[in-house]
Amino acid sequence: RRRAAAAHAQAPAMTRDGVRIEVFANLASAADAGAAVAAGAEGCGLLRSEFLFLDRAAAPSLTEQREVYSAISAALEGRPLIVRTLDIGADKPAPYLPMSGEENPALGLRGIRLQLAAPDLLDVQLRALVTMEAQGPVQIMLPMVSEIAELRAARAALEQIAAEEERPCPPLGIMIETPAAALHAGVLAAEADFFSVGSNDLAQYTLARDRTNPHVAAGLDALHPAILHLIQIAQIGASRHGRLVGLCGGLGADPEAIPLLIGLGVRELSVSAGSAAQTKALIRSLTLEQCGTMAEAALGLPDAAAVRALVRAELGKIV
Ligand code: PEP
Ligand code: MG
């Protein structure tokens, strides 16, 4: 029985009507890649590269980064690896970064903004990713994009580095975690190779609730219908250019969110390794039609609680 369950965890997840939903893992270190594969992850949908940069006096060198990314790719044994470039800001200071105290770090110099303000740092990270030993496909993902100029600047740097190193240019995608990126997705998709919804920050910025503030974070539910609308708009924009939409925020492992995300057109979910098997199991119990009907209904509901009640009731009839 244990062997059968393990084989099932490794199998791809299809809906009952045969639509493949990729289930990837979020990783935050080199050590957890092997465990994620064992748990059924089909790749890494979000490598939070911050772990390489925090709690140290100097930024990691080109060689160090290259070795760590190569080791993670090796542990994934040919499966895809999506590396998010450095996503820190004034709330997680590092002595070698151009940061000062900020009144409002969530709206400050962070994510792609910080990287463009520290081009040497971005150069080293992109160069490590372009020259790493890849055992499988490697894709690069930019955090906190809100302006197409940010994507263009990062792509120009990446193309120049790839040319200098005489290596192919990896696909470059963006996170959809600001309302601007979601609303403007149709234009961004012309130049971004893929999207991944960061539902944690998308909820924070859409609902204007600081995710780190205990007084308001409890009311932060990414199943608010306003956020479902933003994901729908992002998906429509992406599909205009044939781009895939994944999701790597906490919503991806939430059973009450999974049918809605599939119904809205999300085709890759990146979750914590421990949630991969149960996420796949839920996907296998659904049809695309059920998901679409639930998503359509959810968009018209008054609040997140009503959305959750709807999905619970529908899942009660299915599983
Ligand atoms: C997100 O914002 O949903 C996300 C995946 O990124 P992080 O949680 O690292 O900000
Ligand atoms: Mg985020």
Automatic annotation (TrEMBL):
Localization of this protein? Cytoplasm
The residue ranges crossing the membrane are none
The record's comment on protein family reads: Belongs to the PEP-utilizing enzyme family.
Protein name in the entry: phosphoenolpyruvate--protein phosphotransferase
